[in-house]
User: Fold this.
Amino acid sequence: MDEPTLDAIIARYDDPAGRLLGILGEIQDEEGYIPRESLAMLAEKLDVRLSQLYSLTTFYSYFSLTPVGDHVITVCMGTACHVKGAPGILEALEGMLGIKSDTSEDGKFSITTDDKKFTLEIARCFGACSMAPVLRIDGNLYGYATREDLPAILAEYGWEP
Amino acid sequence: MKIGSAADLEAVRQAGMQKLRPGKPRIAVGLATCGIAVGGNRVYERLREIIERDGLDIVLTKTGCIGYCKEEPLVNISIPNKPLVILHKVTEADVEEIVKQVSRGKVPADKALCRVPSWDHVTGCTLEYGKGFSKIPLYEKVPFFKAQKKVILRDAGLINPEDIDEYIAVGGYAAALKALTGMDPETIIKEVENSGLRGRGGAGFPTGQKWRITRDAKADKKYILCNADEGDPGAYMNRNEMESDPHMLIEGMIIGAFAMGAAKGFIFIRAEYPLAIKRLKLAIGQAREYGLLGSNIFGTGFSFDIGIATGAGAFVCGESTALVASIEGRTGRPHPRPPRLTDIGGGLFGYPTDLNNVETWCNVPVIMANGSDWYSRIGAEGNTGTKVFSLVGKVDRVGLVEVPLGTTLHTIVSDIGNGGANNKKVKAVQTGGPSGGCIPLRLFETTVDYESLNRVGSIMGSGGIVVMDEDTDMVDIARYFINFATGESCGKCVPCREGLKHALLLLNRIMAKKGTKKDIETLALLSDTIVATSLCGLGQTAPNPVLTTLAYFREEYDALVKP
Assistant:
């Protein structure tokens, strides 16, 4: 993230309440992850220690320190999704993408395909429980998902068998 | 324009009514997150195209969600002097026919879910839509709606959540006007106390008492907070309340701030709710424009404003001290109480702070509008009012259900939810999220109130009810929750951090059929220890899913282990 963009984000937070998580959240939304250089720049601009920002990014599950692929697929693992088969959806996606779920070094469940096209993540709950099981790709929700639906959904994002 | 008096509010109310009842057909598409996900936006766009193409005199707008998620996308049609008709499972392919019918003063009967001849918006406004369409079922005859009582969701799915005028049209902000110009803080707090309202985040602490403690704290500055972090998996009531009727929350906070003497409030909302954040920001902006937030509200000299603070995904931040740490920009690790938030030195930036859940705040306007006597007649003794539940999982009719407290699980799951999906037999429900427990079918006569749910080993929680059927493996459910709690433990205290991890290892071993009877006993003992010795509510309640499944479904554990 370049300096003017970061400055513009910081300028939106004039109240100390909610500032740090708000700024980090916007960096995450913009970049798909939190680049180390952005953290360092932010630490300098706000006069907070880099270690403090690092501790926030690793504590909160919304933030990731690992770059993501072109499309981020997030599988909801909430209770309703769990009882309606989310683990099976996750497993099917792993098979289709040829990756195996793992925890990355910052403790987040996130794995990216070798061609950097797709990143597979899990979420605690989207709060879209009525449509369980649910997955989200780049901000679009897909409810009532079945294994059979997955090839057609992923094809919208350039996936090929 | 600033609303400074009752006359100003009345002028806006009339203008808002022109939008709700424009004197010509009005089509409103349910566009909360779930409606959008199943194609609501495409239906809206198609409607817009056709209405423009044919140059029709039809008003197209959006609305929130009435809660019948199974039937989405939902579309409301109001034609002057006819009942409001709710269409269900609407697709783009239906749009041409809908518009054709509406332009002739009709509705496509085969798409109609129900009709609403008149609707009580509770806050002093009953809309009389009209008569006719007698072949379409009445709203109150629809099994999903029949046993419900809409108090909190009184406007949801009926007004445009992005237009403050429509909220004011159905009686919105009249309660704030009444409270700020006609009542003193003491009277307001008395009303909240007399209403019997208890915290809707799950713990059930008397709201009025919390307000009084905050008001009595001696400090030159106080804050009020709204917990909109809704971290319980399986719960989405708060999301819908904010997406469908955001001004209800803002109005509740204005009244609370006035009663407690706070000049600033924050809504702490999870980043995973982008639409709710967008609508709240829009609503706050509109309230500022009308002078309902800002300085000298209603000319009373009272000033108050609301900011948004986004959470970043940590279940433990539902705990009050962790939530405050999060807003202050620290990691959300709880500290022992006291000091409580309401104490000097305990709240946001050290100032006395009142924290209430979204739905608690949403109860305040109706209490002010209709009085505590009216409110306390809803629900049961000691458990007054209604509660919104998200009825999800393996139940036939999924959706948001609002019922008076004291309603039985049977009514919610069987009468409203129509039992198991795909004709499967319901086995249990899980209430209260990861802090709650699993309640077996034989206890479905249990009434849903704070004490009764505690007695059967669960909790009210924020309102998630996840239904499990004959195919659900209860040991797997226990493991699911312990896995969740292990991941969400902040790591500060040993019983929670280490205890849950070992409970998970035991459950993994049992699930892998490598466990013994002794492992089950160890699991029970470990669970009791975690409950007794953890620092905060997360650890103290995390073993509940294990303890309840051990109590009610022991045979499923026994079947997995060697003797």
Remarks:
- DSSP finds seven helices and five strands in chain A.
- The mean pLDDT of chain A is 93.
- Helices of chain A lie at 3-11, 19-31, 36-46, 50-59, 79-83, 86-97, 150-155.
- The beta strands of chain A are 71-76, 110-112, 118-123, 135-137, 140-142.
